Amino acid sequence: MNILPINKIILASFAFAFTNFKKILEMSVIPVAISIPFLTIFPDMLEIIQSVYAGEKVVDIQMPENMMIYLLLFSYGYLSLSINVYRLVVLGADSVSSFVPVLDFNKIIRFIALTLFVGLATMIPVMITGVAFLQLIMYFLILPLTLNFINISIGLPSKYNWGLSFPTQVNLFFLQVILPSIVGMLFSALISSVGMPIALEWVVKVIVFYWTLINLALCYQLIVKQGANS
Fold first, then answer.
1. Segment 5-13 long-range contacts (CB within 8 Å, at least 24 positions apart)
2. Ramachandran angles phi, psi of 25, nearest 5°
3. Helices (H), 57-197
4. DSSP code for 1
5. What is the pTM of this model?
6. For 196-217, how does the pLDDT look when each residue is reduced to its tens digit (9 = 90+)?
7. pLDDT tens digit string along 66-111?
8. End-to-end CA gap in the chain
């Protein structure tokens, strides 16, 4: 049985984002502000990574001495914003403070640990075999565990068996991975072919980022509700 209707969730995600637009912007101020130093060097890092993967000579780009600090600030901004968006969707506007970042040490550590686990579980098989497609397969297999990002955000213990049916997991994978990737690639190709400003591509990426957070939280609500009724 599938409990994640794709069309309804997409519409609900955009409706939620539109309704809570002001609150989401307010919550983003501090995380975005502390992420700016890292974002300014991110294009150079991408260029170096692309050179490495392409087997080309690594471009001679001087990274700032404080790069690790920039990365830590960006990581904290990302997790703080993610936690607050998840709380906003699941618990409502009263559960988050617009201009106060997440200061709960337990949540921060658990969120980082789960992020590292997901990253390593999807990347190590690729690094060992060199087969990039394995990353998608591994992400599909561990995808239910990403629902624990919401459990962490709202102060619940992590759950390791979500009991999702295959159709439900497929739809969750489509909503969280396939659809955002397709949208990103389409807009990237369109912007390149038409000659639009590259800034527009980043605007689309930001919108997709927020949408995937809201989308996962809405899926979580449906899955938890179905579990409570079964």
1. 5/171, 6/171, 6/174, 6/175, 9/175, 9/215, 9/218, 9/219, 9/222, 10/175, 10/179, 10/215, 12/218, 13/211, 13/214, 13/215, 13/218
2. -65, -45
3. 67-91, 105-129, 133-142, 148-153, 166-173, 179-194
4. -
5. 0.89
6. 777 777 888 889 999 999 999 9
7. 888 888 999 999 999 999 999 999 999 888 887 777 888 899 999 9
8. 12
**Cα–Cα distance measured from residue 120 to residue 123, given in angstroms and rounded to the nearest whole number:** 5
Per-residue confidence (pLDDT) for residue 190, from 0 to 100 = 81
pLDDT over 70 at 56, yes or no: no
Q: Which residues contact 83 (CB under 8 A, 6 or more apart)?
A: 102, 107, 111, 152, 153
Please report, as a single letter, which amino acid is at residue 168. Answer: T
Name the nearest CA neighbour of 219 among 17, 1, 12.
12
Looking at the predicted structure, is the pLDDT value of residue 55 above 60?
Answer: no
